[in-house]
Specification:
The chain has 245 residues and is of the alpha/beta class. The protein folds into two domains: 79 residues, Nucleotidyltransferase, domain 5; 149 residues, ATPase, nucleotide binding domain (Nucleotidyltransferase, domain 5, 2-Layer Sandwich). Helix content is 34%, strand content 25%. It has seven helices and eleven strands. The strands form two sheets. A six-stranded mixed sheet has the order 6-9-8-7-10-11, sandwiched between helices. It has a five-stranded mixed sheet with strand order 3-2-1-4-5, with helices on both faces. α3 packs across α7. The mean pLDDT is 92.
């Protein structure tokens, strides 16, 4: 069995694969400097046998102890995907090592839908990136995700309440809670639509737009700007890479 891990700033997504077939997935918090007991509690009950592991991470304080845990528990030497891997893209980013590996893995995964292509990863942060017809990764935009927007609003004000992230029936809210919920949700939809529209003007051709991440499905349901949703885009790409190695 293969364990593929996509480690983001807030959460780590785990996928258990038989070859490239996804059997099970789960998510845990990507706590900085997690120790062996953390992984023993969070992972040991879910993992029974592994013969390989592949990791994409933007949080070295999490993936390093995770790699040690996998080696000690399953005698598996995890492959850590980084900027030295050939992912089928020419990286037009300065410096090339500065771009998050999650963005590059997602962009390389989206190549199966053809080029040019725009990739939206809608999670803790929102990244919207572009690949041109020659498979040049052009870069993109980074903006706060919905939870980040809502948390920042609550933390920086004294009277605004905490809200749950969900769609509102009307844009105009007639309570403070509904007003915030509407502003966060519909503001985020508008942000995604606006960035996609502006990125399109800088990419030659008619790019398809692929969305992934925790908020991909609820945002895609409210806009025609997104063509395809694949929530497990990065995990599946990691499994494919493992097959190649």
């Amino acid at each position: 069995m293969l364990l593929a891990v996509d480690i983001g700033n807030s959460f780590a997504k785990f996928g258990i694969f038989d070859g490239t077939t996804l059997l099970e997935k789960f998510t845990i918090s990507s706590i900085r400097n997690a120790d062996a007991s953390f992984f023993q509690n969070e992972l040991a009950p879910r993992l029974h046998f592994l013969d390989s592991a592949v990791i994409s991470s933007v949080v070295p304080e999490f993936d390093e102890p995770l790699s040690k845990f996998l080696n000690a528990t399953f005698d598996v030497e995890a492959i850590r995907v980084d900027s030295t891997f050939d992912l089928g893209l020419t990286i037009c980013y300065e410096p090339s090592t500065a771009v998050g590996i999650d963005r590059i893995v997602a962009a390389s995964a989206a190549l199966k839908y053809g080029t040019p292509v725009i990739i939206c990863d809608l999670g803790t942060a929102t990244t919207i990136d572009a690949v041109d017809s020659d498979k040049n990764y052009l870069g993109g935009t980074i903006a706060p995700g919905m939870n980040t927007m809502a948390s920042s609003l609550r933390e920086k004000t004294s009277k605004l309440p905490e809200i749950s992230i969900e769609r509102t029936k009307n844009i105009i809210g007639n309570t403070t809670e509904l007003s915030i919920r509407s502003g966060v949700f519909w503001g985020y939809v508008s942000l995604v639509e606006g960035l996609i529209a502006r990125i399109r003007t800088e990419v030659t051709g008619s790019p398809k737009v692929i969305a992934t991440g925790g908020f991909a499905e609820i945002i895609a349901a409210e806009t025609r700007s997104i063509d395809i949703v694949e929530t497990d885009l990065i995990l599946r790409r990691l499994a494919e890479l493992n097959e190649r190695l």
